[in-house]
Amino acid sequence: MTREFWTPIWAIAIAASALFTGSTAAQAADPDEAELLDQFEKVDVWHFPVDYTVRYNNQDVIVTREMVAQPAPQGELCYIRFDFIKGDGDYGYGFKPGGPRDAHWGVNVLKRGTVLDQLASQLKMNVIYFYVQGPKSEAAKAVCERKQAAPTASAGNAYKGPWSDLVTKSRLIHGWPAASSP
Q1: Fewest Cβ atoms closer than 10 Å to its Cβ: which of 14, 92, 115, 180?
Q2: pLDDT tens, 54-66?
């Protein structure tokens, strides 16, 4: 084939890849991130994956986490969201009922079943931390408080089960979690 034939094909391929790449970058952002970007100059996202499975003869998982971001994120913590992926059996997650809504949150995954009926409890989720800086208005901080106080499991306000007062420190991971399947 001649060079004249390949030149338009390469131009089309380059344009299509640029369009695809551009559309990926311009994809709609996470709704919470988009809402926070309307209120703040910058939003920095961190996450922590949770994946526990407890079978009949295993010990229960009851843990309270304090997350540490290193290096320290710019800005202050605005909102912690619990993105539930999968759960079976007896489990719970979120903030301690009646406790402060700070960086401490807990999970419980409890064993169940008998020797003859060996069931499992499982909890898989991502905990997303939104750090913000540069409020655009006086009402910006109220958005953080409203989001965290929502009576939903994703805001951490549906915790059930036992709570551990022993705090385990864990390290946050910068950025969004990779897409995962249940």
Answers
A1: 115
A2: 998 889 999 999 9
118, part of any domain: yes
Radius of gyration of the chain (CA): 22
| Pick from 46, 119, 50, 114: nearest CA to 77 | 46
How far is the C-alpha of 53 from the C-alpha of 73, rounded, in Å? 31
pLDDT in tens, 95-152: 998 877 778 999 999 998 887 888 999 999 999 999 999 999 999 999 999 999 999 9
If one counts the domains in the chain, the total is 1
Task: Say which residues have a Cβ less than 8 Å from residue 78's Cβ, sequence separation at least 6.
Answer: 36, 40, 43, 130, 131, 132, 143, 144, 147
CA distance 36 to 44: 10
Q: Please give the residue range of the domain that contains residue 146.
A: 30-174
Q: What is the 3-state secondary structure (H, E, C) of 96-154?
A: CCCCCCCCEEEEEEECCCCCCCCCCEEEEEEEEEEEEEEECCCCHHHHHHHHHHCCCCC
